[in-house]
Predict the 3D structure of the following.
Amino acid sequence: MDKPTVTITIDGVRIVTEPGRNLLQVANENGIFIPSLCYFEHIEPPLGTCRVCTCRINGAPGPACTEKVREGMVVEATTPERVDARKAIVEMMFSEGNHFCPACQKSGDCDLQHMAYELGLTQSRFPHVFKDRLIDFNPKRLIMEHNRCIKCLRCVREVFTDDGKAVFSFRYRGNETRVGIDYSE
Protein backbone atom coordinates (compact mmCIF):
# COMPACT_ATOMS: atom_id res chain seq x y z
CA MET A 1 0.00 0.00 0.00
CA ASP A 2 1.33 3.44 -0.94
CA LYS A 3 2.11 5.92 1.81
CA PRO A 4 0.03 9.11 1.77
CA THR A 5 1.77 12.19 0.39
CA VAL A 6 1.34 15.94 0.54
CA THR A 7 2.65 18.66 -1.74
CA ILE A 8 4.32 21.69 -0.20
CA THR A 9 6.24 24.62 -1.66
CA ILE A 10 9.47 25.96 -0.20
CA ASP A 11 10.92 29.05 -1.88
CA GLY A 12 8.95 28.24 -5.00
CA VAL A 13 10.18 24.63 -5.15
CA ARG A 14 7.38 22.04 -5.23
CA ILE A 15 8.10 19.11 -2.90
CA VAL A 16 6.12 15.90 -2.46
CA THR A 17 6.64 14.25 0.92
CA GLU A 18 4.86 12.36 3.67
CA PRO A 19 2.47 14.35 5.88
CA GLY A 20 3.55 15.08 9.43
CA ARG A 21 7.28 15.10 8.75
CA ASN A 22 9.48 17.81 10.19
CA LEU A 23 9.69 20.83 7.87
CA LEU A 24 13.37 21.47 8.61
CA GLN A 25 14.29 17.90 7.67
CA VAL A 26 12.17 17.93 4.49
CA ALA A 27 13.77 21.22 3.38
CA ASN A 28 17.31 19.99 4.03
CA GLU A 29 16.65 16.67 2.26
CA ASN A 30 15.54 18.65 -0.78
CA GLY A 31 18.61 20.90 -0.93
CA ILE A 32 17.04 23.90 0.81
CA PHE A 33 19.20 24.86 3.79
CA ILE A 34 17.30 26.26 6.75
CA PRO A 35 19.79 26.90 9.56
CA SER A 36 19.12 26.10 13.20
CA LEU A 37 21.12 26.10 16.41
CA CYS A 38 18.72 24.24 18.68
CA TYR A 39 17.31 21.53 16.42
CA PHE A 40 18.50 18.00 17.08
CA GLU A 41 16.70 15.17 15.32
CA HIS A 42 16.70 12.92 18.41
CA ILE A 43 14.98 15.50 20.66
CA GLU A 44 11.19 15.22 20.50
CA PRO A 45 9.34 17.46 20.50
CA PRO A 46 11.82 19.91 18.89
CA LEU A 47 13.03 22.72 21.15
CA GLY A 48 12.25 25.73 18.93
CA THR A 49 14.24 28.02 21.21
CA CYS A 50 16.83 29.74 19.01
CA ARG A 51 14.40 30.92 16.29
CA VAL A 52 17.20 30.96 13.69
CA CYS A 53 15.09 28.65 11.50
CA THR A 54 12.10 31.01 11.44
CA CYS A 55 10.40 31.05 8.03
CA ARG A 56 7.20 32.56 6.72
CA ILE A 57 4.81 29.61 6.75
CA ASN A 58 1.51 30.22 4.97
CA GLY A 59 2.11 33.93 5.47
CA ALA A 60 2.94 33.85 9.18
CA PRO A 61 6.39 33.66 10.80
CA GLY A 62 7.18 30.44 12.63
CA PRO A 63 10.10 28.14 13.46
CA ALA A 64 10.61 25.45 10.81
CA CYS A 65 12.00 23.01 13.38
CA THR A 66 8.68 22.68 15.20
CA GLU A 67 6.48 22.63 12.10
CA LYS A 68 5.01 19.45 10.61
CA VAL A 69 4.40 19.45 6.86
CA ARG A 70 0.80 19.44 5.65
CA GLU A 71 -0.93 19.69 2.29
CA GLY A 72 -0.58 23.01 0.51
CA MET A 73 1.96 24.48 2.90
CA VAL A 74 3.79 27.46 1.37
CA VAL A 75 7.12 28.30 2.99
CA GLU A 76 9.38 31.29 2.41
CA ALA A 77 12.73 30.23 3.86
CA THR A 78 15.51 32.23 2.20
CA THR A 79 14.01 35.59 1.30
CA PRO A 80 16.19 38.64 2.03
CA GLU A 81 13.89 39.43 4.98
CA ARG A 82 14.34 35.93 6.48
CA VAL A 83 18.11 35.95 5.97
CA ASP A 84 18.39 39.38 7.62
CA ALA A 85 16.26 38.21 10.57
CA ARG A 86 18.53 35.16 11.01
CA LYS A 87 21.60 37.35 10.92
CA ALA A 88 20.07 39.64 13.54
CA ILE A 89 19.34 36.72 15.86
CA VAL A 90 22.88 35.38 15.61
CA GLU A 91 24.34 38.88 15.99
CA MET A 92 22.29 39.34 19.17
CA MET A 93 23.61 36.04 20.53
CA PHE A 94 27.17 37.22 19.96
CA SER A 95 26.61 40.72 21.35
CA GLU A 96 24.78 39.44 24.42
CA GLY A 97 26.96 36.46 25.24
CA ASN A 98 30.50 37.81 25.41
CA HIS A 99 31.72 35.27 22.88
CA PHE A 100 35.41 35.75 22.17
CA CYS A 101 36.07 33.01 19.63
CA PRO A 102 39.87 33.22 19.30
CA ALA A 103 40.32 32.54 23.02
CA CYS A 104 37.66 29.81 23.29
CA GLN A 105 38.68 26.14 23.39
CA LYS A 106 35.68 25.32 21.13
CA SER A 107 36.84 27.72 18.39
CA GLY A 108 36.59 25.90 15.09
CA ASP A 109 34.16 23.36 16.56
CA CYS A 110 31.32 25.65 17.63
CA ASP A 111 27.80 25.67 16.19
CA LEU A 112 27.35 29.40 16.82
CA GLN A 113 30.65 30.21 15.14
CA HIS A 114 29.76 27.97 12.16
CA MET A 115 26.38 29.70 11.89
CA ALA A 116 28.07 33.12 11.81
CA TYR A 117 30.38 31.96 9.01
CA GLU A 118 27.44 30.42 7.12
CA LEU A 119 25.54 33.71 7.32
CA GLY A 120 28.60 35.76 6.35
CA LEU A 121 28.74 37.73 9.59
CA THR A 122 31.85 39.79 10.21
CA GLN A 123 30.46 42.31 12.67
CA SER A 124 27.31 42.99 14.65
CA ARG A 125 24.87 45.84 14.20
CA PHE A 126 24.17 45.59 17.94
CA PRO A 127 26.36 46.99 20.70
CA HIS A 128 28.05 44.39 22.87
CA VAL A 129 26.49 44.11 26.31
CA PHE A 130 29.60 42.75 28.06
CA LYS A 131 27.45 41.40 30.85
CA ASP A 132 29.67 40.18 33.67
CA ARG A 133 28.53 36.60 34.11
CA LEU A 134 30.45 34.59 36.60
CA ILE A 135 32.00 31.29 35.67
CA ASP A 136 30.57 28.76 38.11
CA PHE A 137 33.43 26.59 39.39
CA ASN A 138 31.28 25.11 42.18
CA PRO A 139 30.32 21.77 40.63
CA LYS A 140 32.84 18.98 41.07
CA ARG A 141 32.04 17.41 37.68
CA LEU A 142 31.81 20.43 35.38
CA ILE A 143 32.27 24.17 35.02
CA MET A 144 29.30 26.34 34.07
CA GLU A 145 30.45 28.96 31.53
CA HIS A 146 27.40 31.22 31.33
CA ASN A 147 29.03 33.59 28.81
CA ARG A 148 29.09 30.84 26.18
CA CYS A 149 25.52 29.61 26.66
CA ILE A 150 23.02 30.45 23.90
CA LYS A 151 20.08 29.17 25.99
CA CYS A 152 19.12 26.48 23.49
CA LEU A 153 17.59 24.32 26.25
CA ARG A 154 19.37 21.17 25.02
CA CYS A 155 21.14 20.41 28.32
CA VAL A 156 17.89 20.86 30.25
CA ARG A 157 16.03 18.42 28.00
CA GLU A 158 18.81 15.84 27.63
CA VAL A 159 20.79 15.51 30.87
CA PHE A 160 19.24 13.44 33.63
CA THR A 161 20.49 11.42 36.56
CA ASP A 162 20.36 7.63 36.48
CA ASP A 163 17.00 7.77 38.24
CA GLY A 164 15.51 10.26 35.75
CA LYS A 165 15.85 13.55 37.66
CA ALA A 166 16.73 16.71 35.75
CA VAL A 167 20.23 18.00 36.44
CA PHE A 168 19.85 21.40 34.71
CA SER A 169 17.06 23.98 34.59
CA PHE A 170 16.54 27.53 33.37
CA ARG A 171 16.58 30.11 36.12
CA TYR A 172 15.47 33.73 36.12
CA ARG A 173 13.87 35.48 33.12
CA GLY A 174 14.70 37.63 30.11
CA ASN A 175 18.30 38.72 29.76
CA GLU A 176 18.99 37.30 33.20
CA THR A 177 18.03 33.75 32.16
CA ARG A 178 20.76 31.22 32.81
CA VAL A 179 21.18 27.51 33.19
CA GLY A 180 21.14 26.34 36.77
CA ILE A 181 22.38 23.04 38.11
CA ASP A 182 21.09 20.85 40.91
CA TYR A 183 24.30 20.43 42.91
CA SER A 184 22.85 17.59 44.95
CA GLU A 185 22.74 15.28 41.89
In short: The beta strands are 6-10, 13-17, 54-57, 60-63, 74-76, 135-136, 144-145, 168-171, 178-181.
